Amino acid sequence: MENREKFTAKHNELQNCKKLIEFKNVYKSYGSNKVLNGISFTIKRGENLVILGKSGSGKSVTVKCLVGLTKVDKGEIFISGKDITKLDEEGLNRIRMKIGFLFQNGALYDSMTVRENLVFTLQHNNKMLTEQEIETAVKEALQNVGLEEAIDLLPAELSGGMRKRIGLARALIIKPEIIIYDEPTGGLDTITAREIIGLIRNIKLKYNTSSIIITHDLTCAKYTGDRVIVLKDGLIKAEGSYKGIENNADNWVRSFFEK
Questions:
Q1: What is the pLDDT of residues 178-190, one digit of tens each?
Q2: What backbone phi and psi angles, to 5 degrees, belong to 105?
């Protein structure tokens, strides 16, 4: 009996080590508007999770809860085994330093060059780096997105696709454990969107990052997501592989994939 208990404890410990993010029965309302109604899901280390859902389904609020920008009404959210709902602002900031963001519009500072945008983000996360370490990190981040030649350009001199790639370089420069992609292919032409999809896949392979990808682009969802969840009215309506959800028995879920 004792050996079985030790085995069970060890098994649970190993399973928990695989979980980087875990939502447990999370609720969030704004007044009478119930946005999240008890969602639960996990993301393993090195896994990309795609979140699909119509406007108002709770996608953005899920991310805000994850990074502590909004407090949950009920439930628990674990990152690396720590319940962030119980952390103070200092504790949340330490967690946020593990998270990189790619915003829909790139969100670069217009008055700064590409180099300055990257350095600003890097120094905000780590003020102890030497000039050589900063220079090496900037070059590596730009190499990852294939834009070394853009280092001294201003955002106004970049195309939409280039701004998105620089935004991704900025997310990568802090060497995050988690990356949150907000509509990574939104507003891009087909060829550029395909390039961004390729970058997302390569980054996961190179750095073993875990990611949440919020997207309306089904091609992006299909080729970047290891797993997909579909939100409806603050609940998880479906969860599984892209192919499995595409062939879901529920008419509402299948409606996402109708041309």
A1: 999 999 998 889 9
A2: -100, 10
3-state SS assignment for residue 211:
strand
pLDDT, tens only, 73-129: 999 999 999 999 999 999 999 899 899 998 876 678 889 999 999 999 999 888 888
- For residues 119 and 134, give the distance between their C-alpha atoms in angstroms, rounded to a whole number: 7
Tell me 20's DSSP state.
E
For residues 204 and 195, is the Cβ–Cβ distance under 8 A? no
The pLDDT value recorded for residue 149 is: 93
The H-assigned helical ranges of 71-189 are 89-96, 114-125, 131-144, 160-172
- Within a 13 Å sphere around the CA of 128, how many CA atoms are in the beta-carbon half? 0
Structure token digits, residue 116? 């300055």
Confirm if 75 and 85 have CB atoms less than 8 A apart. Answer: yes
Does the pTM of the predicted model rise above 0.85?
yes
Alpha helix (H) residue ranges in the chain? 2-18, 59-66, 89-96, 114-125, 131-144, 160-172, 190-207, 218-224, 242-246, 251-254
Distance CA 203, CA 48 (A): 11
- Which domains does the chain show, CATH number per domain? 45-66+89-257 (3.40.50.300)
